Amino acid sequence: MLPSRLLWKLYLGYFVLIVLTASILGGLVFRRIKEDSLEEIQTSLRTHALFLREFSGRRPADESATELRDRLRILGREMGARLTVIGPDGVVLADSDQDPAEMENQLNRPEILRARSHGLDTRPRLSELRGVPGISLALPVGDNLGNDGYIRVSMPLSAIDERLGRSGKAVLGGTVTVAAVALILGLLVARRLLKPLVSMTRVAESMAKGDYGQRLSIARSDEIGELGEALNRMARSCQRRMETFQTDHRQLLAILGGMAEGVVAVDENERVLHMNEAAGRILGAEPSASLGKPVWETTRIPQISETISRTLREGTGVNTSLELRSSPRDRSIELKATPLRNGDQAPAGAVVVMHDVSERLRVETMRQDFVANVSHELKTPVTAIQALVETILDDPDMTFQTRDRFLRKTRNQSLRLSSIVTDLLTLSRMESEEGVSREIVDLRETVAVPAEEAIPTAEVRGVQLHIQVPDRPLWITGDMEGLCLVTSNLVGNALKYTPQKGEVTVSLSQEGSQALLKVEDSGIGIDARHLDRIFERFYRVDTARSRELGGTGLGLSIVKRVVLAHSGTVSVESIPGRGSTFRILLPVPGNSGPDSEPGSQVIRSSAS
After folding, report:
1. d(CA 301, CA 307)
2. In what order do the strands lie in the sheet with 272-275?
3. Which residues, other chains included, contact 568 with Cβ-Cβ below 8 Å and sequence gap of 6+?
4. Among the CATH numbers 3.30.450.20, 3.40.50.360, 1.10.287.470, 3.40.109.10, which is that of 41-155?
5. Which residues of 248-257 are buried (b: 16+ CB within 10 A; e: fewer)?
6. In the CATH hierarchy, which fold is given to the domain comprising 436-605?
7. SS3 of residue 13 by DSSP
8. How far apart are CA 515 and CA 596, in angstroms?
9. Residue 316 φ then ψ, to 5°
10. Cβ atoms within 10 Å of 122's Cβ, excluding its own
């Protein structure tokens, strides 16, 4: 079964044309053969009639009727015709096929009447002898008036039909043979003509399905070959364009997927065409599951669908913002919707860009708070120094004791101002990667040395300070100065807020692949509502007490920045009235030695 319907359609028309042509040609040939055969028969009849006429005119006078009949029978067999001799009165004298006695008078027969009226008429006429259709020719004998009688030559139509049938069969056989050969050749030609078209159809269907790698192999130089080459060129061009399109599409998806902003594209019916991961996080939706769905179905935020509807309705861009109340903190989102248009500039959808500005606003708020806090913290000692100096300058009669007391206060405020500036510079250095040095450091030194320096302070305050470090080194790559500041700030805070006869314990140990620095105190503790903010700059739980104790409000901020710069973590646990525990975990290399238990070596204790 040939796969091409076009082949059958083309071949059906060709089949009808061949059959019709063969039929017409066969009919014309048969008609011509029939006419030639009849003409030949008529000629034969005329020849036989003329011969019989001459024969009858020359027969012997004493010849009997029986002898005449025998001679006619012999001549009739040789001529293949029926011969009849008729007297002037219409009585049959002899007949090659029948006994004359059994035959009726022939004078009123059409052929006899015509022979009598027309004389020598050599055109045969249709007649019927003994109920059998035939063709006859009658001629007068002698003076052409029938005075000497008539002769008649007849031939039955069955013989003529048999002859024409043989001719017709020959014509029909030849016509069928020629038509069959023409149809077979036509089928072969049609198949050869349509085979490349079938291949082109398959290639075109493959291209319609997105497979542009198919190619035609046509070794022809005619129009079909040119069409095949054109199709191959189109396939190569489409393949290059599709590869370019796919590359651009992948790049676009990669760009959209890597954007921090959320991007949602919808069609004119507000069905989602694209949603990146950032948009999914903002909307609380799964991007892959949202494709093809209405945007109002993928999110519970009504402002999103309202913004898109407005953009599609008005055909202009829309800028707005919204506040999302969510856990663990609220978020601020800026929306920018832009209409999409097709090649005819007709509306085709919209794209919405969502920018989460929560962190930016938070940082801006922190910056404003930081500027305000820095201004306040710097203004306090500067104002105090200015007031003390102006008082000394305005009172030249001030006593030595009073002047000395004012100068001591001025020195204290200067030291406080210097501490604030130093801590700010340290914090700025730690927040910059270039400001953190990298060297091989033994953590025992960063803990033991600053803790030992705080022992005199602990003795003055009447607080027991315990320092516990392992007996083996804990090597890490880090900033020696920054790590020392961590210990110094934590121990200093613990001593400040631990009452007399309290205890502060500083311990260093290794737990698996991490080093644990723990500072415990039995001080006043921290209320739970302050724990999340104590590492912010200038944040104080008790402002008056902190300033009274000389704190800058930057110590814990420095601790957090140093720990983060070393890829560590810091946490705090506190119970008001019972004390606080600060834990710092820092990653250490695997060759730092076996785990060491805290307390394996006590460097020094203020209580010893």
Report:
1. 11
2. 272-275, 262-267, 347-356, 331-341, 318-324
3. 584, 585, 586, 587
4. 3.30.450.20
5. eeeeeeeebe
6. Heat Shock Protein 90 (3.30.565)
7. helix
8. 10
9. -130, 165
10. 14
Distances (CA, A) of 35 to 166, 167, 182: 14, 12, 28
How far apart, in Å, are the Cα atoms of 79 and each of 74, 122, 155, 423?
Answer: 9, 17, 10, 149
pLDDT-derived band at 593 (thresholds 50, 70, 90) equals very low
The top-scoring range by mean pLDDT among 22-26, 150-154, 267-271, 380-384 is 267-271
- DSSP E strand boundaries for 117-240: 125-129, 132-140, 150-156
Give percent of the chain above pLDDT 70: 78
Q: Which amino acid is at 229?
A: E
Task: Give the up-direction half-sphere exposure of residue 597: CA atoms within 13 A in the CB hemisphere.
Answer: 2
Please state, in angstroms and rounded to a whole number, the distance separating the CA atoms of residues 183 and 14: 8
Give the position of tokens 């309705």. 313
Decide whether 41-155 matches 259-354 in CATH topology.
yes
The correct CATH number of 361-428 out of 3.30.465.10, 1.10.287.130, 2.40.30.200, 1.10.3720.10 is 1.10.287.130
Measure the CA–CA gap between 294 and 273, rounded to whole angstroms. Answer: 10
- Which residue in 411, 452, 393 sits closest to 602, CA to CA? 452
pTM of the predicted structure, to 2 decimals:
0.43
Instruction: Give CB contacts under 8 A, 24+ apart, made by 62-70.
Output: 65/93, 65/94, 65/100, 68/93, 68/94, 69/94, 69/95, 69/96, 69/100
User: Which pLDDT band holds residue 507 (cuts at 50, 70, 90)?
Assistant: very high
Per DSSP bridges, beta strands 82-86 and 150-156 are antiparallel
- Mention every residue, 6+ apart, whose C-beta is less than 8 A from residue 569: 563, 584, 585
Cβ burial, residue 309 (10 Å; 0-12/13-18/19+): middle
If you classify domain 259-354 with CATH, what class do you get?
Answer: alpha beta
- pLDDT, one tens digit per residue, over 17-28 is 777 887 887 778
**CA 33 – CA 263 distance, rounded (Å):** 90
Domain coordinates of the chain in residue numbers?
A: 41-155, 210-257, 259-354, 361-428, 436-605
Show the beta-strand stretches assigned E in 117-191: 125-129, 132-140, 150-156
- Report the SS3 class of residue 494: helix
Q: DSSP secondary structure string, 391-444? A: HHHH-TT--HHHHHHHHHHHHHHHHHHHHHHHHHHHHHHHHSGGGS--EEEEHH
Nearest to 235 by CA among 194, 192, 202: 202
Integer Cα distance of 209 and 5 in angstroms: 21
Residues in the chain: 608
Residue type, 509: S
